[in-house]
Write a structure and sequence with these properties.
Helices cover 28% and strands 36% of the residues. By secondary structure, the protein is of the alpha+beta class.
């Protein structure tokens, strides 16, 4: 989903979730939208995913799309390495609410 499409989607829909994805050992952030049907859309430009260098960059871009809430999801490779299933959808254990 292109950044301009994100703004249009937000104007027309109210039931969606924005996730800011961070990976352990990586300093970049990726943004994805999950719609009411459970489909995930990675935010991109010209067909390629956008990687943000800081949370401030993410905040600015999401504010432009009139989004003021998101979840920070931090993926830790250790979960898969030790054989434990990662539970990224449990709000209290793996997601941090962001309000900006």
């Amino acid at each position: 989903m292109e950044l301009q499409e994100l703004k249009t989607f937000v104007e027309r829909h109210d039931n969606f979730e924005i996730r800011v994805i961070s990976h352990a050992g990586n300093r970049f952030y990726q943004v994805e939208l999950e719609d009411v049907e459970g489909q995930r859309h990675v935010i991109g430009r010209r067909g390629k995913p956008v990687l943000f260098r800081s949370l401030d960059d993410v905040y600015l871009e999401l504010k432009r799309a009139d989004i003021h809430r998101a979840y920070l999801v931090h993926h830790v490779a250790n979960d898969e390495v030790v054989g434990r299933e990662a539970h990224y959808h449990q709000p209290l254990t793996s997601r941090t609410p962001l309000v900006f």
